[in-house]
Amino acid sequence: MSLSVRLRHQLPGIDLDVSFDAPPGVTVLFGRSGSGKTTIVNAVAGLLRPQAGRVAVDGWVLFDTEQGLWLPPHRRRLGYIFQEGRLFPHLTVRQNLAYGRWFAPKNTRREDPGRVIDMLGIGHLLDRRPAGLSGGEKQRVAIGRALLASPRLILADEPLAALDDGRKAEILPYFERLRDEVSVPILYVTHSAAEVARLATSVVALQDGKAVRHGPASEMLADPSVAPAGIRAVGAVLQVQVAKHHSDGLTELNANGARLFLPRIAHEVGANLRIRIPAQEVILSNNKPEGLSALNVLAGTVDTIRSGEGPGAIVSVKTPAGNVLARVTRRSVAALNLKPGSTCYAVIKTVALAPQDVGGRIVAGS
């Protein structure tokens, strides 16, 4: 199922004018505060009536101002996941889930409650009320309630923003499963590069109410001009497979024949993953390093060099594992005499590959 969005709307301080088509999967909206992310989500949800535009999900039109078509929110068959779970405090988890299912049209295919409960790991919570749940548990229930409404589209407005790092790590795998196992497009708002790298099928970068770029996560995170959180969010996204878990606490990854090591992860041998390598955690060398503590050394050639207005530069190195990005100084580029086509080595500290930057690989066709 695909999503098509065309919106024009004026608000104090912002002139929204966006247009994008999103493939099945997770489409991430990112940009600075005030760039229009939540305005877009609320317009799609029907909580805001834009001055002009059209939104359709797999050909089903939610509104079209030229045709004078406007479906009210309760007829749009959307699931909305907020920053806070917004569960009904007087209802149990079971009753909150049933509330979502109550909105599912009887003549459409419904999600099996048992499957959703198992997928989200909330079976032991069914008789509790929201006051007795952790933040992560509340969000899992909120996901289940949205999914059991049999939505045509799921909207998630910074659903992890209110959680600490531990709870975020708990919830991210469930969004990955939602992306890979449920045929419902997801429009997802976040400022986090790790969430983009792990979840995004496609990314829409917003600036001052305009969609300045649209493309896959690997391309968007490689561009410092559009990456969420700017230059510090720039990084490479690689497809890897778990090769071996070693007794010293490291996991070995196979990245298209190249070996990478990181602290042990809870994925089985053979699992296909996506990992994000922040550009600031990569150093470059003209010669193969010896006597270093870093275990990850990839030979490659310089693909591109992008210099900013300041002292820094982003160097893209083509390696067997894929393109790796390094954030270095322009002085280092000159000292190493780096140019497109130059041979070099990318060195990555093992501990620089953080658990939050490792996620399930998108299933083909999802």
TrEMBL record:
Residues 5-233 form the ABC transporter domain. Coiled coil: none annotated. InterPro entries: AAA+_ATPase (IPR003593), ABC_transporter-like_ATP-bd (IPR003439), ABC_transporter-like_CS (IPR017871), Mo/tungstate-bd_C_term_dom (IPR008995), ModC_ABC_ATP-bd (IPR011868), Molybdenum_import_ModC (IPR050334), Mop_domain (IPR004606), P-loop_NTPase (IPR027417). Residues 291-357 form the Mop domain. Keywords: ATP-binding, Cell inner membrane, Cell membrane, Membrane, Molybdenum, Nucleotide-binding, Translocase, Transport. Gene3D superfamilies: 2.40.50.100, P-loop containing nucleotide triphosphate hydrolases (3.40.50.300). SMART domains: AAA. Pfam families: ABC_tran (PF00005), TOBE (PF03459). One of its GO terms (molecular function) is ATP binding. NCBIfam families: modC_ABC. This is Molybdenum ABC transporter ATP-binding protein. The lineage of its organism: Bacteria, Pseudomonadati, Pseudomonadota, Alphaproteobacteria, Rhodobacterales.
